[in-house]
Amino acid sequence: MRDARPTTNPFSGPETRSLVPGLPSPGPVRTSAYTSVDVLPRFELWDRMKDRRVPITFEIEVTARCNNDCRHCYINLPADDLNARARELSPGEIEDIAREAASMGAMWCLLTGGEPLLREDFSEIYLRLKRLGLLVSVFTNACLVQMEHVELFQKYPPRDIEVTMYGATEATYERVTRRPGSFQAFVRGLDRLLSGGVKVRLKAMALRSNVHELQELARFCRARTRDYYRFDPLLHLRFDGDAVRNAEILAERLAPDEIVEVESADEERLGALKKGCDKFILTRSPCHEGSYLFLCGAGRGSFTVSYDGRFRLCSSLWHPDTVYDLRRGTLHDAWHHHVPRIRDLRSSRKELLERCGVCHVANLCLCCPAHAYLESGEMDMVVDYFCRVAHGRAKALGYQEG
């Protein structure tokens, strides 16, 4: 299971760890002409550390394999893929990466996939990270949750478990997963977690296959946990460029006006979006700041490691020139030498500079170098689909574009 990135503040939980003192400052961090740091929500620890480029959070895709075969997934490989399994990081390799990250200031780790629970050594991996003192979150589809997992989470509580739901009915759920019996397995797994008192956050993907059930999905999730519910309508294309799977993902994508419609129909979603936009959206004309590609937070306070040890600035960034093989190098080298080189990349593409570089609603848009590469094969291409979503959102929220 691999869906949206976590959106919660990892530092609001009861567990804390000390940061390593004396970390050097890399100097000021560039911001875009249309994204000013001083308008971002204030989390004191994050604010203090991000400008020093400390890797406070990281995620590890412990496997790309999954028990489901979801139509929209951009990473999943078959559960019995022996080649993928042979390339997976061992528990020791994962611990070594996490230990080095912790020594550099990391506090929070997300275990994701694929489906993490597909690994027979998941409990060992989880315990190794907990013993390092890290906050640990897990993304799962819950279909493989057994009582041994519940007991593990009860004894060594996670930061949270994020569970994705693909449909409110068996027919819809299994149309998405393409696995008979997966709906009942999901219900059993979720019930085990909730009955065991494990902190669960629920989410859904808004797809062509389940859009008619989104309201029922929301009711189902909110009836089971008041802590959290969100849905994500924006689908990534495959990281491996598989043309057949990409065609399936495109078939599941909602049109920009449909995305705006489903977001507008959910008062909680719309309210959260508007609250964020009130802080993010420009109320002034931007000044052009140059041609830096990475005006986002990639590689500033977090990073991602693939199941086979490839370091990435964020979970979506798969351009071959931006990955770093941790099996051949160190996390320290990746963070302090590789990342600055990538973040210094620039573009002279006229359309990017004249459209995105001066856009008043850029912070409503998910287009970035990572997504542009997945869509077009180039990191500095303008992706019209994301542009239309951003301007549709701005219009729905009543913002005037200058």
Q: Care to describe what's here?
A:
The structure is a single chain. The chain has a single domain (26-346), classed as TIM Barrel (Alpha-Beta Barrel), CATH 3.20.20.70. The protein contains 15 helices and 11 strands. It has helices at residues 44-50, 82-87, 91-103, 122-131, 147-155, 170-177, 182-195, 214-224, 243-252, 256-265, 267-280, 331-343, 350-355, 369-376, 384-396; strands spanning 57-61, 65-66, 77-78, 108-112, 135-140, 160-165, 200-205, 229-232, 302-305, 310-312, 324-325. The protein is globular and about 55 Å long.
Reconstruct the topology from this structure:
Blueprint (H helix, E strand, L loop, with lengths): L43 H7 L6 E5 L3 E2 L10 E2 L3 H6 L3 H13 L4 E5 L9 H10 L3 E6 L6 H9 L4 E6 L4 H8 L4 H14 L4 E6 L8 H11 L4 E4 L10 H10 L3 H10 L1 H14 L21 E4 L4 E3 L11 E2 L5 H13 L6 H6 L13 H8 L7 H13 L6
Parallel strand pairs: 1-4, 1-9, 2-3, 4-5, 5-6, 6-7, 7-8
Antiparallel strand pairs: 9-10, 10-11
Cofactor: [4Fe-4S] cluster
GO biological process, one term: heme biosynthetic process
Protein name: Radical SAM protein
CATH class placement = Alpha Beta
Shape: globular
Tally of structural domains = 1
CATH architecture classification name: Alpha-Beta Barrel
Rounded Rg? 20 Å
Number of helices: 15
CATH superfamily: Aldolase class I
* Strand order within the widest beta sheet: 8-7-6-5-4-1-9-10-11
User: Care to count the β-strands?
Assistant: 11
- Biggest beta sheet summary: 9 strands, mixed
Residue-averaged pLDDT? 85
Q: Find the structural class using helix and strand composition.
A: alpha/beta
CATH topological fold name: TIM Barrel
Cofactor: [4Fe-4S] cluster
Region (Disordered): 1-27
Keywords: 4Fe-4S, Iron, Iron-sulfur, Metal-binding, S-adenosyl-L-methionine
Biased composition (Polar residues): 1-11
